[in-house]
Amino acid sequence: MKLLVPALAVLLAGASCLVGCKSASRSTETTTTNVSTTATASTAQPTPQPEATPPPLTSEQSEARTLLEQGKELFRQDKDKEAAETFQKALELDPDFGEAHFRLGLAYASQGRKQDAEDEYTKAVEAYKKYVRTNQKDADAFFNMGLAYGKLRKHDEAVKALKQAVKLQDEDGDMYYELGMELSKIAQYQEAVTALQKSIELDPDNYRAVEALDKAKVGAERIKVLQKRQEELLKKQEAAAKRANANGLNSNGGTKPAPTATP
Question: What is the spatial distance between Cα 198 and Cα 209, in angstroms, rounded to a whole number?
Answer without folding.
Answer: 9
